[in-house]
Amino acid sequence: MLEVLRRIVQEVNGARSLDAALATMVLRIRKAMKTDVCSVYLLAPETDRFVLKDTIGLRSSSVGQVSMARGEGLVGMVALREEPLNLEDAPAHPQFRYFEETGEERFSSFLGVPIIHQRRVLGVLVIQQHEKRRFDEGEEAFLVTLGAQLAGVLAHALATGALGKLAGTSGQATFKGVAGSPGVVIGKAFVLSPPADLDSVPDLIPTDIDFEIARLKEAINAVREEIRVAAERLASRISTQEHALFEVYQQMLGDAALGQEVEKRIREGQWAPAALADIVRRHVQYLERVDDDYLRERAADIRDLGRRVLAHLQEEGDSGPIEYPENTILIGHEISPATLGEVPRERLKGLVAVSGSSTSHVAILARAMGIPTVLGMVDLPLSRLGGAPVILDGHRGRLVVRPEHELSVHYSRLIAEEQALSVLLEQEQDLPSVTPDGHVMPLMVNTGLALDAVASLKTRVGGVGLYRTEVPFMMNDRFPSEQEQARLYREQLAGFAPLPVTMRTLDIGGDKDLPYFPIKEANPFLGWRGIRVTLDHPEVLMVQLRAMLRAAEGLDNLRIMLPMVSGIEEVDAALALVNRALIELAEDGVNVSRPSVGVMIEVPAALYQLEALATRVDFFSVGSNDLTQYLLAVDRNNPRVASLYDACHPAVLRALARLAEESKALGMPVSVCGELAGDPAGALLLLGMGFDGLSMNAPSLPRVRAAIRRVSLAAAQGLVSEVLCQPTANQVHGLLLERMQAWELAHLLPPRDHTPDASAAQAAVSR
What we know:
By secondary structure, the protein is of the alpha/beta class.
């Protein structure tokens, strides 16, 4: 049954439209389970009713005509209870609802299971039979498994199907991902097509059919020549049988085979790359379903040939520099920093990626540049998006494609309000960060990227709370030398002098890889990362420490911070290397005073070792992002559980409050450099808890400064007392919103959600 299950899911997944996916689903399930009826009901969000969308066994005329509310009829009962319903005599059940147009009075037995994706009931899958019998446990388990397996596939098909039916500017489709960088922007989708990726070719209508056919033939001939040369080169090293495969490839590429079918698709209105991708996918899906092992293996050959031809087509299509639209929303499976740099900054308005995380290099760049970004958008049908008008909501991780007029007007107003607020806040950015009752709360900036903003930032901050030294490592094709690092660090230290600059030692691992030093692990966030990597490679850490110290000569504003500390032994080993570096540099004639050394509190174990840490280091800095992730056991970059990640979870807030209290008792300066510090409401909480400083990305500074200058320390402390009594994150958010409104500071928060079902509390603190 596992093989049957795999094939059904594979076929549904390969369907090119929602209708095709549903038709495949009911056909294959009915055949696999040998039933008289298989039907699928889908939720229509606008009516909140479950509509019969496809069936085999019931009258086809009832498709789209029959619908039930939650709790209505047997289908509605399955949806309401979110559990299977297995009946021997369905018409006798008190909840049975008879629809004459279906003709289902002929069927007695009924088995329905919900299709649930990320806690949301998408639909109900139903099988029925004439005879009175209860489906056995194996059949019920198989259908439940199918429903669970198909949920994600169907969610993607629903999104793709909804988008595929859009015509002109009518209608809209909304996709959800992980918020990577806040902000809202309206623009035009520009889809990046990875080289030779058959699944990412956009659908385009050709302007010159003859030209498309001609370049297809040229690409096929080029691949045929490549195969001929390869066959000749290997002739003496492989058997006659293996050599015959090359002839099979030539036949596949012949005018009467693949080429002819692709040409036909071009004449039907597709450009050559998309026509090729369609035909190759169709052949691959067919071959993967057959029972013959030899033919199944040929599916990989077809796919490989398709990629080879596509590579030539894409090479031909590269006729010059890319023209990006004025308001480009860059969309791709992955977006590298190099790609980001190719788009003119004045045209780049937003970023969307199928993969990636909120702590990836591109997300860090986007936040520093103030570019709204959404990542982890796994259900995004890339091929349907090219050139479409879109709204990107980086606050909530949302992309709206071909938005309706009302929504466009709403977001246009939000953008205008945001711009007006930015102008207003700019007027007080050189004023001190002091509460109305005279408490100074130093604001620092997170850096590690371009230095062009240093001049304007220096008068507005108390220093650099986090300099990400891994960024130069990521931009290289090898470990940078001591001289290269020292030059970069010197620019940063001199640019902010005499203000302190806190440099974090190399923090790789997790989701931050170096191209020349990849770390592949099953569970990277609990694996080899941060200080664990550099202590295992002291030659790398020593070069970095020497570069930092050398760069600080004569400036004396360097602070060194150790990431991902979970034990005292790690700190002792790192401090020994710092001392060794100082001795070595002194021997070289470089006299540098010993800098302050601190640790990042981001692993929960560190919370319970504060006293021992305080005897060894000079300061603590809380990495609230990772601390939240580890306390809640939530990978914030996984779209399935990202909604559970919440820095305002009561457990996280209580841990932070206790940390601030214990640090004060130990006489240890403690700051926060995670995203919570860059949120106005979050910053007020941290102020009230007693943290000594906040560090954030530059775009967050104006709103946080405005909040601190308008709320007294006493009021912030009162807010903390109230918040720590709340049992749930939702209640915390509700209270924060209530207080921010009372203080007339709600305009500093992310804009309210426009969707009717959005709770006001969700807008209180960006998560």
